[in-house]
C-alpha cells in the first residue's frame, strides 16, 4: 500500500509527453533539491521535464546540477503533467500557479501538515523529514539509477530540511537514505559548506551585533533582539543577512520562544522560533502573520518599542498555555503517522 | 581480517576479572561516550569495568548513562586489563597513566593519526569518524545487545566527533550506524540539545561581541578576533564560554584560517582553525603549541598587539605554502585507509 502512490505518480510521469515541476515561492533547499532530482531522473528517461521557481534559486543552491536551467517565468504552452512541490495551496507556486491549474494531471507532493489536498494525485506524507525522501520513492519507482548528480540534489533536500541531521524529524530512514546518497557520489559536506559556512563578513558582524544585544524576559524563557537599518549599515550587511539570528537565540539554554524584530520600510517584521510546546504560529496569527509551530512571523506597522511590547505580551500568554496540559513537543517536528496519503 | 582485532579485544575483556577504561585529559564527547558504552556492555556481561577520567565529565555529558560513576581519582588496586581511550600517549590519561602502565594487558584504542602505538593490543583505525565506531565493533564482538543506554552513549560519541554529521569525516558507515543506534532507542536530538543548544546568555553575548569585532586580513582569507577580560565581564561570561567562537570565524565565506586571541593570566592564548589545506598545527608549533591540521592552539607571553602581529605573519607564510603544490584537504579529515591497524 505504502508504495502505491509513488508508483502511480511514476507511471503518470514516465508516460507524459512533458512535465512541469513547480517550486513554492521563497524556495528552500528541500524544494529546489527535490525538484531538480525529479527533473534529472525524468530527463534520463527521455521525458522533457522542467523546473519552475517564481522566485528563482537562492545563491547557496546555484551549484546544484540543473539549477542553471530553472525557469522563473512560465512558458506559454501548457503542460500535460505538472507537479506542485511543497505548495500548501496552488497559489504558493506564484507565477507558476496558472500553469499548474492548466495541466491535465496535477500532482501534489508535500510533507507539511498545512497542505490543502488539491490535485489529481496527492502524495502527502508528514512523516517524511524532507520532500526529498518522497521524491526518492518516486525515482525508485521510475527505475532511474541514482547517479551522483541526482544524489547531490537529494542530499541538498535532506540536509537543509533536517538542519544537517540536527532536527528531531530525522529518522533511521533519513540516515540510511543519506548513506546511500553518499555512496552514489553525493557529498553532505558540499551542502553544509554552501548552506552553513558562507557567511559574509557583514553578515557575521550583524549576527554579532544582534547577539551582543540579546534581551531576556519571562525568567529567561523568552529571548529577543532587534535589527535596525543603522546596524545593517554599520555591519555592511544585506537584508538576507538576518538569516540564522533568531535560530541562535532559540538555541540558548532555557529559551522557549525567541524573536527577532527588524525595522523595515513596511513596518516591524518579527521572526519567531519556539520549542517545548510553545507555538510560534499562534503568536504570529494574533498579528495577522503565519507559519508553523516551530517557526513563524508577522509584520506590523508601528514603532519598534510598541511592537516589541505587544508581541512580548502575546508570547507570555502563549507560554502560559504551553505550560498547561498540552503534550510537549520540540517545535521542529513534521509529524503524523507514516502512510497518511490520499488520492482524489 | 578487519574484525580480528575487535574480537581479540572482546575476548580479552570478557575473560578479565576487572577492567579500567581511561579517558584522555580534557575529555570530549567521543571519548566519554565510547568509554561509557564499553563499560555498560562489559557490566551487562558481569565484568566489573570502571571508567576513569582525570578531568571529570564536561557538564553537557553528565546526563549520559553511567556518567555519575566515572572516577576522577584512580583506586589503589591494580587492574588486570586497562583500555586507553583516544590517548595518543599513555601520559594523556593524566592521573590514570600509572594505572594503565600497571595493567597486565593494556589495550590502546584510537582513531587519531597522532597515536604513538603503545600497548599490548593496538586498535588504531584512522578511517573511523569517531572512536565510538570502533567501540561498536568491540561491543558487537562481545555479543552484548545494544540497548537504549549503550546507544545513547555511542550517539554522543558519533554526534560530537562529526559536528552532528557536518564534518567531512562522515561516511555511509557512520550514517548507518547512527540509524541503528536511533532504532535501538538512542536520540540524536538529545545530544544536539545538550551540546549545541545550551549557550548561556553570557556566552551568547560574548560570542556576539567577538563576532561583531571580527577583523580580516590576507584578502579575506584570514579572520581573527580577540576576547579580553573586559569583554568577559561586560557579557557576564565564564572562561569556557569562548567555545565555538573561532569555529564560526572559520565558517565565513573565503576564510582559510581563523584565530581567536584571548587575554589570559598566562599570556595570550590563540585558538586556530583552518581549512582548504592550511595547517593549524604548523602555525601553532611555530609558537610551541600543537594540535592537528584543522584545529590547534598556543599560548605566548607578550602584549595582545605583539602576539597578533607575530601570529598573522606566520599565518601568511602558511597560506603561501597551502597555495603551493600540496594536495588540498578540508582540514577536518581523520584520514588513512581503513584497516590500518596493528598489534604488538
Task: Describe the secondary structure blueprint for this structure.
The structure is a homodimer.
Chain A: H1 4-14, E1 19-22, H2 29-44, E2 49-52, E3 81-85, H3 97-102, E4 105-110, E5 121-124, H4 131-142, H5 148-161, H6 172-183, H7 188-196, H8 201-212, E6 215-217, E7 222-227, H9 229-235, H10 245-250, E8 257-264, E9 267-274, H11 280-286, E10 290-291, E11 295-300, H12 304-322, E12 342-343
Summarize the structure.
By secondary structure, chain A is of the alpha/beta class. In chain A, 38% of the residues lie in helices and 17% in strands. Chain A has helices at residues 4-14, 29-44, 97-102, 131-142, 148-161, 172-183, 188-196, 201-212, 229-235, 245-250, 280-286, 304-322; strands at residues 19-22, 49-52, 81-85, 105-110, 121-124, 215-217, 222-227, 257-264, 267-274, 290-291, 295-300, 342-343.
What does this structure look like?
2 copies of one chain form a homodimer. Chain A has helices spanning 4-14, 29-44, 97-102, 131-142, 148-161, 172-183, 188-196, 201-212, 229-235, 245-250, 280-286, 304-322; strands at 19-22, 49-52, 81-85, 105-110, 121-124, 215-217, 222-227, 257-264, 267-274, 290-291, 295-300, 342-343. Chain A has 344 residues and is an alpha/beta fold. In chain A, strands 2-1-3-4-5-12 form a 6-stranded mixed beta sheet. The two termini of chain A are 16 Å apart. The interface between A and B is large, with 46 and 46 residues.
Amino acid at each position: 500500500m505504502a508504495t502505491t502512490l509513488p508508483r502511480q505518480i511514476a507511471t503518470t510521469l514516465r508516460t507524459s509527453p512533458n512535465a512541469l515541476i513547480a517550486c513554492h515561492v521563497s524556495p528552500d533547499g528541500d524544494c529546489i533539491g527535490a525538484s531538480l532530482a525529479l527533473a534529472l531522473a525524468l530527463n534520463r528517461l527521455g521525458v522533457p521535464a522542467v523546473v519552475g521557481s517564481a522566485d528563482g534559486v537562492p545563491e547557496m543552491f546555484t551549484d546544484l546540477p540543473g539549477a542553471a536551467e530553472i525557469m522563473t517565468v512560465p512558458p506559454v504552452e501548457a503542460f500535460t503533467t505538472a507537479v506542485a512541490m511543497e505548495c500548501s495551496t496552488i497559489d504558493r507556486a506564484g507565477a507558476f500557479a496558472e500553469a499548474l491549474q492548466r495541466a491535465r494531471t496535477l500532482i501534489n507532493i508535500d510533507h507539511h501538515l498545512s497542505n490543502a489536498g488539491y490535485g489529481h494525485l496527492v502524495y502527502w506524507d508528514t512523516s517524511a523529514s524532507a520532500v526529498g525522501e518522497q521524491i526518492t520513492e518516486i525515482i525508485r519507482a521510475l527505475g532511474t539509477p541514482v547517479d551522483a548528480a541526482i544524489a547531490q540534489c537529494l542530499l541538498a533536500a535532506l540536509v537543509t530540511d533536517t538542519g544537517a541531521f540536527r532536527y528531531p524529524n530525522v529518522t533511521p530512514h533519513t540516515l540510511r537514505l543519506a548513506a546511500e546518497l553518499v555512496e552514489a557520489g553525493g557529498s553532505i559536506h558540499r551542502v553544509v559548506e554552501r548552506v552553513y559556512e558562507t557567511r559574509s563578513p557583514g553578515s557575521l558582524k550583524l549576527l554579532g551585533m544582534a547577539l551582543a544585544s540579546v534581551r531576556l524576559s519571562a525568567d529567561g524563557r523568552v529571548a529577543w533582539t532587534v535589527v535596525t537599518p543603522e546596524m545593517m549599515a554599520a555591519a555592511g550587511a544585506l537584508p538576507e543577512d538576518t538569516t540564522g539570528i533568531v535560530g541562535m537565540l532559540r538555541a540558548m539554554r532555557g529559551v522557549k520562544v525567541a524573536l527577532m524584530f527588524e525595522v523595515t520600510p513596511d513596518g516591524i517584521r518579527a521572526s519567531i522560533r519556539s520549542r517545548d510546546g510553545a507555538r510560534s504560529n499562534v503568536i504570529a496569527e494574533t498579528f495577522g502573520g503565519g507559519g508553523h509551530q516551530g517557526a513563524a512571523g508577522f509584520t506590523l506597522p508601528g514603532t519598534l518599542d510598541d511592537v516589541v511590547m505587544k508581541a512580548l505580551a502575546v508570547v507570555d500568554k502563549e507560554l502560559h498555555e504551553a505550560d498547561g496540559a498540552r503534550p510537549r513537543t520540540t517545535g521542529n517536528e513534521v509529524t503524523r503517522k507514516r502512510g497518511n496519503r490520499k488520492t482524489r
